[in-house]
Amino acid sequence: MCTNYRPTLRDWLAQQLRGAAPEFEYPADAYPGYAAPVLRRSSRDVNPEAGGACAPAFDCLKASFGLIPFWAKDTKIGRMTYNARSETAPDKPAFRQAWSRSQWCLVPMECFYEPSYESGRAVRWRIERRDGSPFMVAGLWDRWVTPGTGETVFSFSMLTLNADTHPLMRHFHRPGEEKRSVAVIDPHHGAEWLAAAPDAALALLEAPRVDEFTSREEPATPRRSAAGAAATT
User: Fold this and answer.
1) Three-class SS string for 125-143?
2) Which residues contact 99 (CB under 8 A, 6 or more apart)?
3) pLDDT tens across 59-100, in order?
4) In whole angstroms, what is the distance from residue 137 CA to residue 86 CA?
5) CA 131 → CA 17, 20, 91, 167, 204, distances in Å?
6) pLDDT tens track for 166-196
């Protein structure tokens, strides 16, 4: 299960957002509870003059890593909902409303990290594209209103797939545990994913392609708090 990744840099996001960089800061490394950018479908992707859809537009949300369902009493549940199993998410209380409403998002990242135990101890490994370019992971987002203040908090979870037989991803996580992988969205299918109906969403999810992704050992640096983490530039 993915608990740590590196969000993409602001310049790359600005390209995806047609020149408008995110108006908020976010840490260089994201962990559950940290704020990070996610992209969701925008109402601006319809061009009335063209009589239909034009090139897709995205809204960029500042969202907490760890989905907080609308019914939660507080944000603590986000410590357990940073990943959602794609096989069961449609039925799980924390995710089912977001799924039924097609509240899909794209989580842009440079890489993500997983622990390898093949040396006999947990060692953090970095998984990234072979060409070093950013990529998108499928996610679910939700909106939560803070009791008392009425403040809106957006949050998200990454969708995962079984990876027991995946040539790359089967090497991570504890021995004897099911192997899981985040679900990568093909860059040509990003707009299709954000607009997918609930019964069509699963067909767009895929594990990292072994001809496009690679991994290497990269031990973790000391953790910093979400409030004190350095922002990307």
Assistant:
1) EEEEECCCCCEEEEEEEEE
2) 89, 90, 140, 198, 201
3) 899 999 999 999 999 999 999 999 999 999 999 999 999 999
4) 13
5) 22, 25, 37, 19, 22
6) 999 999 998 889 999 999 999 889 999 999 9
Contact 180, 166 (CB under 8 A): no
Q: Is the pLDDT of residue 53 over 70?
A: no
Contact 112, 134 (CB under 8 A): no
The pLDDT of residue 1 is 76
Alpha carbon distance 160, 81 (integer Å): 12
121 burial level (CB within 10 Å; 0-12, 13-18, 19+): exposed
Q: What distance in Å separates the CA atoms of residue 124 and residue 94, rounded to the nearest whole number?
A: 28
DSSP assigned state of 200: G
Supply φ then ψ for residue 169, to 5 degrees: -75, -15
Distance, C-alpha 147 to centroid of its chain: 26
Place of tokens 């009493």: 73
Query: Residue 47's pLDDT is what?
Result: 42
The two tokens of residue 181 are 């992988």
